[in-house]
């Protein structure tokens, strides 16, 4: 989630190579996002104008608007690129579990936090989270929420099959709860400059331990699953 190179998803058909003109447009789009994100982190999202982005990128303000009708659209593009980039790390964790449910769930959370460390980076992610709440119906946001929750569910299913957690646990519901806990923790992490990644993950570990102790006697989870049917 931090200050890593931005790589936008390929917008053409699978296997279709982009022509020179399209490559130039894609690169300019990428350059504008990188310039905007740097400004957001340095000055704050609200303080940056589209004119500032144009000036820093050495293009006309009209050019910026041609690519992004609003600053919100830039945030969305940055979020999409960040989520796409993180997929490989999430899948690596899924494919190489350590053998302890809590350890592996915390690994996923750590990968999601990434290198978000500096105050400007945290402030930017608070803005992104605010946008995702306002635009909750956006298909892109639903996709990435479901994607990350599915990684939690995959891990829980693996450990359930291995006999590490109760066979009657509703892993889909449990994964949803864990995702909510992680989202709340990440927001708290972004709001508290003194909270380190290690401190945030330590808190998450304690919360997971409480959940798993409760789920050891998972009758409430079974009842909740039946209530949804």
UniProtKB/TrEMBL annotation:
<dbReference type="InterPro" id="IPR050109">
    <property type="entry name" value="HTH-type_TetR-like_transc_reg"/>
</dbReference>
<dbReference type="InterPro" id="IPR036271">
    <property type="entry name" value="Tet_transcr_reg_TetR-rel_C_sf"/>
</dbReference>
<dbReference type="InterPro" id="IPR001647">
    <property type="entry name" value="HTH_TetR"/>
</dbReference>
<feature type="domain" description="HTH tetR-type">
    <location>
        <begin position="26"/>
        <end position="86"/>
    </location>
</feature>
<keyword id="KW-0238">DNA-binding</keyword>
<dbReference type="InterPro" id="IPR009057">
    <property type="entry name" value="Homeodomain-like_sf"/>
</dbReference>
<feature type="DNA-binding region" description="H-T-H motif">
    <location>
        <begin position="49"/>
        <end position="68"/>
    </location>
</feature>
<protein>
    <submittedName>
        <fullName>Helix-turn-helix domain-containing protein</fullName>
    </submittedName>
</protein>
<dbReference type="Pfam" id="PF00440">
    <property type="entry name" value="TetR_N"/>
</dbReference>
<keyword id="KW-0804">Transcription</keyword>
<keyword id="KW-0805">Transcription regulation</keyword>
């Amino acid at each position: 989630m931090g200050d890593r190179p931005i790589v936008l998803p390929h917008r053409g058909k699978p296997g279709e190579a982009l022509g020179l003109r399209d490559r130039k447009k894609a690169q300019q789009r990428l350059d504008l996002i990188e310039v905007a994100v740097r400004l957001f982190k340095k000055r704050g999202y609200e303080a940056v104008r589209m004119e500032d982005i144009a000036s820093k990128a050495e293009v006309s303000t009209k050019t910026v608007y041609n690519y992004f009708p609003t600053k919100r659209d830039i945030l969305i593009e940055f979020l999409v690129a960040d989520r796409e980039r993180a997929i490989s790390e999430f899948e690596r964790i899924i494919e190489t579990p350590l053998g302890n449910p809590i350890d592996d769930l915390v690994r996923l959370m750590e990968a999601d936090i990434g290198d978000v460390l500096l105050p400007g980076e945290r402030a930017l992610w608070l803005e992104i989270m605010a946008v995702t709440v306002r635009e909750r119906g956006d298909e892109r946001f639903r996709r990435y929420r479901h994607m990350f929750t599915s990684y939690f569910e995959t891990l829980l299913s693996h450990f359930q099959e291995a006999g590490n957690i109760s066979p009657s646990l509703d892993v889909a519901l449990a994964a949803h709860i864990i995702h909510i806990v992680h989202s709340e923790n990440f927001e708290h992490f972004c709001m508290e400059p003194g909270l380190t990644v290690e401190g945030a993950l330590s808190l998450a570990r304690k919360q997971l331990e409480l959940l798993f102790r409760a789920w050891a006697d998972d009758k409430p989870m079974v009842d909740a699953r039946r209530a949804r049917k």
